[in-house]
Inverse folding.
């Protein structure tokens, strides 16, 4: 794999992904964690641009059984082979962003897409690895922890569970699975803007079914339009409706005001969630090692550290003894 700078592991979290996308200059989108692809969930999140699926990687990954067997050309698809350690999350995000025409990519990603348009998948992967913007934004989420081994890759270890991100999205009337560790895009068959998430649900369920009931480590996120923008536009629409009503339309006015109040509540919750995401991201990036070191040093100087260690050790031994007697 390419070593174009070390790429850190990043946490599977909608707040992390949303801030990462914003850091690359993309406007008007966010990531939401979802637990179902049912119609009501998808209707609430519309428009959904694509899905990001996290699963435990297996060495002998097979092509999904739902794959379409035709030989449709894929030169209209941005597909990059993963040639970078730990880059699968960012590549899954890019797989959606760079295959949509209805997302404001910003100048740098738009130029990157145009520059790499005719590149083969391996060269697209190398272009990602050499992008200062993409690498620096990705690595801005590196954990400030000297005890964490940041360099891990699905093909790099046999002794631990390793996880991998892939993307699902509709492209020109077909549902595609885009996995940087595959040789190319996987066509899962024709779909429409209305039913593609149902088809993706089938493909994801099929993949999860290979693991049996013992495996629970999956995560699914949706790349959607910025919910703050959506709610603000909907509130503005309600205001326009209110202004257009005749003075005697009290029942209709009350109904619209109730709907507007509900949207205001959702907007308030969304803004609170963004503030929480920002705070959590700041904490992720902060190095707490000096704080911990100084706390331990002060306790040692006060001769309070050894008694605390002894007390904690005795507590653990007592708990282990209690469990062994069960």
């Amino acid at each position: 794999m390419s070593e174009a700078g070390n790429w850190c592991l990043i946490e599977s979290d909608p707040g992390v992904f949303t801030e990462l996308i914003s850091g690359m200059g993309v406007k008007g989108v966010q990531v939401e964690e979802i637990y179902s692809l049912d119609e009501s969930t998808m209707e609430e999140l519309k428009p959904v641009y694509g899905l990001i699926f996290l699963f435990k990687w297996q060495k002998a990954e097979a092509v999904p059984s739902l794959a379409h067997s035709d030989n449709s050309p894929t030169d209209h698809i941005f597909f990059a082979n993963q040639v970078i350690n730990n880059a699968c999350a960012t590549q899954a995000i890019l797989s959606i962003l760079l295959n949509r025409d209805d997302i404001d990519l910003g100048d740098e990603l738009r130029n990157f897409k145009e520059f790499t348009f005719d590149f083969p998948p391996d060269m697209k992967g190398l272009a990602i690895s050499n992008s200062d913007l993409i690498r620096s934004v990705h690595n801005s989420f590196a954990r400030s922890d000297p005890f964490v081994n940041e360099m891990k890759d699905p093909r790099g270890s046999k002794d631990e569970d390793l996880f991998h991100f892939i993307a699902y999205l509709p492209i020109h009337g077909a549902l595609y699975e885009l996995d940087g560790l595959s040789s190319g895009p996987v066509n899962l068959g024709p779909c429409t803007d209305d039913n593609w998430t149902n088809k993706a649900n089938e493909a994801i369920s099929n993949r999860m079914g290979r693991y049996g009931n013992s495996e629970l480590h999956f995560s699914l996120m949706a790349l959607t339009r910025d919910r703050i923008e959506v709610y603000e536009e909907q509130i503005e629409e309600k205001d326009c409706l209110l202004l257009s009503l005749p003075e005697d339309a009290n029942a209709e006015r009350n109904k619209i005001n109730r709907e507007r109040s509900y949207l205001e509540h959702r907007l308030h919750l969304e803004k609170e969630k963004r503030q929480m995401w920002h705070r959590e991201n700041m904490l992720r990036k902060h190095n707490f090692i000096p704080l911990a070191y100084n706390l331990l040093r002060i306790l040692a100087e006060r001769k309070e550290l050894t008694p605390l260690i002894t007390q904690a050790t005795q507590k653990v031994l007592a708990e282990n003894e209690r469990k062994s007697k069960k």
The first helix runs from residue 14 to 23.
